[in-house]
Amino acid sequence: MLDALKYLLGSFGASGYGSKSTAEEVTENCPDLGSVTAVITGATSGIGAETARVLAKRGARLVLPARSLKAAEEAKARIVAEFPNSEIVVMALDLSSLDSVRCFVSEFESLDLPLNLLINNAGKFTHEHAISEDGIEMTFATNYLGHFLLTKLLLNKMIETAKKTGVQGRIVNVSSTIHSWFSGDVIRYLGLITRNKSQYDATRAYAVSKLANVLHTKELAQRLKQMDANVTVNCVHPGIVRTRLTRETEGIVTDLIFFLTSKFLKTIPQAAATTCYVATHPRLVNVSGKYFADCNEAWTSKLGSNSQEASRLWSASEIMTARDSRAIFDPLDASD
Ligand SMILES: NC(=O)c1ccc[n+]([C@@H]2O[C@H](COP(=O)([O-])OP(=O)(O)OC[C@H]3O[C@@H](n4cnc5c(N)ncnc54)[C@H](OP(=O)(O)O)[C@@H]3O)[C@@H](O)[C@H]2O)c1
After folding, report:
1. Ligand 1 pocket test: which of 62, 244, 276 has the largest number of ligand atoms within 8 Å of its C-beta?
2. What is the pLDDT of residue 12?
3. Which of 103, 107, 130, 216 would you label with 19, given CA atoms 20 to 30 Å apart?
């Protein structure tokens, strides 16, 4: 109750920011990002587009991978129109395809750019059950598995950049408070919805993918620490905001739901604030493995803080993203 009131009032937390802070406000006093190169997924619309706009405003060089180059060029044009000196590279990437992730990384490496910041923001929510070309349920493949491989393949570049520049690298995973709606066995549920269309529930599938973002953050933070890498990883809940995420359910009922809940909704500049805060704020140097909401550290679900589950998901993800592991969950085998 008190939390809801604080949220509605936009009260500031320990960071000095709250639910109503915007991405521009939280980056106002951040150091000049002129020497920072950032990869931001899902920057063609919504929260990612605003994150990209504000980081460009603060001087960062942006690499915007997108499945539609046309949409990415349009996103770039909007930013350049506002900040003509921005340096923005647009590249192809479909996160639901592991081959596409590998191609993107090899193209990115050929540019020989440094990499300081990786923002894993892209995401989808869909009522339609689908299987990725790698044989994995599509929401999980897009929201989590593609980002898992992307991060793994870009990690050496980030570690190397941090070593050369002495500036700590940061990875930000965009999750959701909905991660807490899933309880149970992540891998077992993934197998079930991959093999069996009738078991698919769009909200639960979305929740498990967002829980995977939280568990990924936890395990990666641990591994970065063990490697003594000067790179941190944290995850965020941006808040609830009307974007193209609900594009499939556009209509009068959705309009009504958004109208009735409008007091709890953020604007897009507010929703991009937590990502931008975690990506840039000097206070967060050496802070890793944490979950943030409304620009303040927050609690994950019990399952989200389970180290065993995080390590188990990591091992399964290594298998699922290995080149020769097609159809780890055989869609023809509907047995559980
Ligand atoms: N909106 C909310 O209330 C809310 C709440 C909590 C968390 N989130 C999270 O915030 C993040 C951003 O979502 P949003 O609300 O800004 O939604 P959005 O406007 O729909 O943006 C999603 C972005 O992800 C990209 N994307 C989707 N599938 C992709 C794929 N296979 N490969 C590459 N890019 C892909 C989209 O590109 P296209 O242009 O190609 O579609 C778009 O740029 C997501 O991770 C979402 O789960 C949102």
Report:
1. 244
2. 86
3. 216
Name 234's Cβ contacts closer than 8 Å, sequence gap at least 6: 170, 171, 172, 173, 217, 221, 278, 284, 287, 288, 289, 290, 291, 292
The residues of the chain scoring below 70 in pLDDT are 1-2, 5, 250, 253, 255-260, 263, 325-336
Active site residues: 200
Q: Which atom of ligand 1 is nearest to the CA of 96?
A: 31
Residue range 259-291, pLDDT digits in tens: 667 768 999 999 999 999 999 999 999 999 999
Cα(11)–Cα(16) distance, integer angstroms? 9
Domain ranges of the chain: 31-237+277-321
CB-based contacts of 215, cutoff 8 Å, min separation 6: 186, 304, 306, 309, 310, 313, 314
Cα(94) to ligand 1 centroid in Å equals 12
Exposure on the CB side of residue 105, measured as CA atoms within 13 A: 20
From ligand 1's centre to the CA of 15, what distance in Å?
26
Mutate to test the pocket of ligand 1, among 7, 39, 41, 44 (most ligand atoms within 8 A of CB): 44
- The sign one gets for the Cα dihedral 288, 293, 294, 296 is negative
